[in-house]
Amino acid sequence: MGKMYHIGIDESHGAKYVIIPGDPGRVEKIASFLDDARFLGQNREYTSYIGTLSGERVLVMSSGMGGPSMAIGLEELYQTGIRTAIRIGTCGGIALPVTGGDLVIANAAIRMEGTTREYVPIEFPAVSNIEVTNALIESAKRLQAKYHVGVVHCKDSFFGQHDPDRMPVGYELNNKWQAWKKSNTLGSEMESAALFVVSQILGIRAGCVLNVVWNKDREKLGMSNPESHDTTLAVRSAVEAIRVLIENDRENDK
């Protein structure tokens, strides 16, 4: 196998597990939590490091922003041997109990984006893998983190969320935002739907843990609204979850 056209790596990395941040700038930081981490490759938005955890090879590769880049990355990662993926990223809070610095473990995503519509009909749900989600919950407990488990909103337009009144379809964006709030949606981000749907189709176990940056709805109500850009806790949670999965897989001969 030659190097994949977009991600720029081949199967020689030997890993079955991958941690996927969106930002290429976070890859080296995440890899520093692994043993013997080293730079593997960089092409377009895809920066890769390889290391080990509990004696198993673990890949860290960025996906860039949005569903299309996530889907392309997953397709090519699968061809190189990846079978378990955890996205680590950021989100804005929607439900009022969700505040900056909390962890959101997404077990499903609202498919308000376009990538997954070119994979499956809109009636098909975007859901995480239960083993990976349980590992993320266990890791959050081990770290004594404040966490929430539930549905997240996945979109294509960042500024459609943050400045909907400027958009010609602002009436629709505002109405749907109220629907997500009334449905107790935890937060909003841009990659989880593609992660869950494409992984389901390929046969990759996938989960998602997010650092909450802030909650604009808390701010609108005059509630305390701490802002947190430090993703360290989410990174540690993802790494610990991979460790849990490695242990479980060994016990079950996976």
Report on the structure:
This protein is an alpha/beta fold and 254 residues long. It has one domain: 3-Layer(aba) Sandwich (Rossmann fold), CATH 3.40.50. Helices cover 33% and strands 28% of the residues. Strands 5-9-8-6-10 form a 5-stranded mixed barrel. β3 and β4 form a beta hairpin. The protein starts with 16 loop residues before the first strand and ends with a helix.
Q: Helices and strands in order, then pairings?
A:
Blueprint: E1 17-21, H1 27-31, E2 35-43, E3 46-53, E4 56-61, H2 67-79, E5 84-93, E6 103-112, E7 126-127, H3 130-142, E8 147-155, H4 158-162, H5 170-182, E9 187-189, H6 192-202, E10 205-214, H7 216-220, H8 232-251
Parallel strand pairs: 1-4, 1-5, 5-10, 6-8, 8-9
Antiparallel strand pairs: 2-3, 3-4, 5-9, 6-7, 6-10
Helix pairs in contact: 2-6, 3-8
Would you kindly provide a brief summary of this structure?
This protein is of the alpha/beta class.
Q: Give the overall pLDDT as a whole number.
A: 97
The first-to-last residue Cα distance is 24 Å
Spell out the helices and strands N to C.
EHEEEHEEEHEHHEHEHH
Give the CATH topology. Answer: Rossmann fold
Residue stretches low in confidence (pLDDT < 50, at least 5 long) are none
Q: Taking strands numbered 1, 2, ... along the chain, how are they ordered across the largest sheet?
A: 5-9-8-6-10
Q: Which second-level CATH architecture applies?
A: 3-Layer(aba) Sandwich
In total, the number of domains comes to 1
Oligomer status: single chain
- Report the CATH superfamily: Nucleoside phosphorylase domain
Count of strand segments: 10
